[in-house]
Amino acid sequence: MNERKIEIRENEPLAPLTTFEVGGPARYCVRIVCEEDAAAALSFAGEKGCETLILGGGSNVLISDEGFPGLVLLNRITGITVEESGGSVLVTAGGGENWQEFVDLCVARGWQGLECLAGIPGTVGASPIQNIGAYGQEASQAIAEVRCLEIATGEAVTFDAEECSFRYRESIFNTRHAGRYLVTSVTFRLLPGGAPVVKYRELAERLAGISLPTPADVRDAVIAIRAGKGVLVRTGFESFRSAGSFFKNPVLPRARFAEIEALLSEAGKAENWAWPLPGGDVKVSAAYLIQSAGFARGHYRGNVGISPHHTLILINRGGATAREIVEFAGEVRQRVLDRFGVALLPEARMIGFASPPFGCDREE
Ligand SMILES: Cc1cc2nc3c(=O)[nH]c(=O)nc-3n(C[C@H](O)[C@H](O)[C@H](O)COP(=O)(O)OP(=O)(O)OC[C@H]3O[C@@H](n4cnc5c(N)ncnc54)[C@H](O)[C@@H]3O)c2cc1C
């Protein structure tokens, strides 16, 4: 029997809770600050027989104009604990902790493992969902464990990194178990005094003057690069209403990649637009395909456009509806499909749509 009192609000506007600033209301909405709150909220959803949606920072979602017909749980579970383990530290953070502040804290303590992921908006609890990544690093490389509540039963379950089946922008939480769990905390294994990862060319160039960069040097360089691209949702920096990269970078079989490369070479080959993967496939830049299909940075129609700094970022220029964004994104996607035969898939989660846009195999 759960004794905690939670405040369920009705018809709560969701647009202000997202970085796109788009979307209709939630039928019900509740702010949860501990697992007991979450359990109480889940039993409320069970009683009402309504769907649930977990929202962290709302930085990777596009919510429909109709909104969400069920219960939205705003994850605000905080708290950080640290345990020494051999030469490393195990740092456990509540799922509602702010990701940027969490990375800054780890870097300030000299713990290596998350420095390239500085400046990504959102919450700790969302980091395993799409295995966030940037500048040659992915959250999965540091994640030791993910603690969850199963939404249907309210039971606690912990997954180790292997059980999460992490891949590029993928885990069990956005594939076979999508919508099944609420992540309440994540444990990261970090290395005190460890040498940071500097794989990404732009990052290496920026750090060229430093012989042995520290995690703090890398973090600062990442923040500077992100600031230049308008992808820092942080006070004092220019940013746009968006969900970050709207589409994923497609992963293509080598033969298909070679065909596209041949097509592109007609127009002069780009540098740094494709990255070979260990199994032989090639990850290619969706931004480059979009550009080559005729969409330049800053291109816009009405209230929706492409960021002036980054082709992969679709922006709400003010007053956009979800429908306008879906139509604009659909046009971009179609032109890439016509030109290169590649069907881009959205990275942002589509929520509350009657039929999932862009041939998504599922929606939340
Ligand atoms: C300007 C900008 C730049 C970005 N840059 C990057 C980048 O470099 N790399 C990158 O990988 N991403 C990037 N993103 C995307 C986004 O920041 C990340 O995906 C982030 O992890 C989303 O966190 P959130 O808390 O905002 O999740 P939300 O947007 O609230 O939710 C995203 C999805 O995760 C689910 N979810 C969230 N929290 C939980 C939880 N606790 N338990 C279960 N499910 C949950 C939601 O239901 C939803 O499906 C960027 C976004 C923006 C706006």
Structure summarized in a few sentences:
The protein is of the alpha+beta class. 23% of the residues lie in helices and 25% in strands. The protein has seven helices and 20 strands.
Topology of helices and strands:
Blueprint: E1 9-13, E2 25-32, H1 35-48, E3 52-55, E4 61-63, E5 68-75, E6 80-85, E7 88-94, H2 99-108, E8 111-112, E9 133-134, E10 137-138, E11 143-150, E12 156-160, E13 181-192, H3 201-206, H4 215-228, E14 251-252, H5 254-265, E15 274-276, E16 282-284, H6 286-292, E17 300-301, E18 304-306, E19 314-316, H7 322-340, E20 349-351
Parallel strand pairs: 2-5, 3-5, 4-20
Antiparallel strand pairs: 1-2, 6-7, 7-13, 8-13, 9-10, 11-12, 11-13, 14-16, 15-16, 17-18, 18-19
Bound molecules: flavin-adenine dinucleotide (FAD).
Flavin-adenine dinucleotide binds at residues 19, 53-61, 75, 95, 120-123, 125-127, 129-130, 132-134, 181-183, 231, 233, 242-244, 349, 364.
Summarize the structure in words.
The chain has 3 domains: 9-75, Uridine Diphospho-n-acetylenolpyruvylglucosamine Reductase, domain 2 (2-Layer Sandwich), CATH 3.30.43.10; 80-228, 2-Layer Sandwich (Uridine Diphospho-n-acetylenolpyruvylglucosamine Reductase, domain 3), CATH 3.30.465.10; 251-359, Uridine Diphospho-n-acetylenolpyruvylglucosamine Reductase, domain 1, CATH 3.90.78.10. The chain has 364 residues and is an alpha+beta fold. It has helices at 35-48, 99-108, 201-206, 215-228, 254-265, 286-292, 322-340; strands spanning 9-13, 25-32, 52-55, 61-63, 68-75, 80-85, 88-94, 111-112, 133-134, 137-138, 143-150, 156-160, 181-192, 251-252, 274-276, 282-284, 300-301, 304-306, 314-316, 349-351. The protein has 7 helices and 20 strands. The strands form 6 sheets. Strands 6, 7, 8, 11, 12 and 13 form a 6-stranded antiparallel sheet that branches. It has a 4-stranded mixed sheet with strand order 1-2-5-3, with helices on one face. It binds flavin-adenine dinucleotide. The site of flavin-adenine dinucleotide has 34 residues, from strand 3, strand 9 and strand 13.
